What we know:
Elements: H1 18-23, E1 34-41, E2 48-49, E3 57-59, H2 61-74, E4 78-84, H3 101-113, E5 118-123, E6 137-138, E7 147-148, H4 150-166, E8 171-174, H5 181-191, E9 198-205, H6 212-217, H7 237-249, E10 253-257, H8 263-272, E11 277-281, H9 283-294, H10 300-314, E12 318-321, H11 324-332
Parallel strand pairs: 1-3, 1-4, 1-12, 4-5, 5-8, 8-9, 9-10, 10-11, 11-12
Antiparallel strand pairs: 2-3, 6-7
Amino acid sequence: MSGPTAPVLRPRRLRQSPALRRLVQQTRLHPADLVLPVFVREGIDEPVPIEAMPGVVQHTLDSLVTVAREAADAGIGGLMLFGVPVDKDARGSGADDPEGILNVALRAVVDAVGDRLVVMADLCLDEFTDHGHCGVLTATGRLGELVVDNDATLERYAAMGLAQARAGAHVLGLSGMMDGQVAHVRAALDAEGFADTVLLAYTAKYTSGLYGPFREAVQSSLVGDRAAYQQDPANATEALRELELDLAEGADMVMVKPALPHLDIVAAVAQRSTVPVAAYQISGEYSQIAAAAARGWIDRDRAMMESLLSIRRAGAQVILTYFALDAAAALRG
């Protein structure tokens, strides 16, 4: 009587050596896929570490220019700039002030790196408002409470977008989740001769418990949450509806944020989108890995690369990540 038949189909054959594994690897990362989010703070003389994000700082203008040059030399795709102003008000006036910290920083970075790097600007009011919301508040809620006025906010976004375009930003990241924001900003830019300025729509920006470290980074004034305009993490279909609207309004790129908790949405958007898809590995995603690695619980670099590969595998062509420079170094070997 013969013994058991040996397996004929052996998937392990393709895993037996580093060379074979490298040859058949389906998903690859390149530094050019990565965008580094950076914070520039008004009124400081040296970079300020962000406690909740080990290794990340609030930059001075000088240190921001230095990291922009490092990013260009590393071959990463771009920078996404966030401003941290000294003064805030209800309208977020600093957002469209040509001498506001974000617009000054955009000019400095563009002057330093030119087209060696894609320079992106966060187009949202939350860093500049004294209430921390992403738009203009008005007492029009059902019970007379203050709510974000969608259409009044669009006017502020148009002004902010024009200021950023005049400062030289290549890409404007519309992150406020206001209805009609892409079309409104596109029309304002085109009317002023900025037809080539790229719009990155935050198509699916979910409310999340993982934004906490970011709010320290931008010194947010927010009390409460943004559930009335950001998406519910329980919902998937509305992300696809938002995608259809953003594409119809003229978005050049679309974004899913956060990334890892919503890889199903990244994949669904990537399957349907006719423009490049980005995903943002947000502050809390970064800090979880950094904190666990600091305690010796996980291998930081291995977890970093695994997380980025999973976002890429889900379909994101562009990844915003605080690991961008470290990942680029690892990819170069």
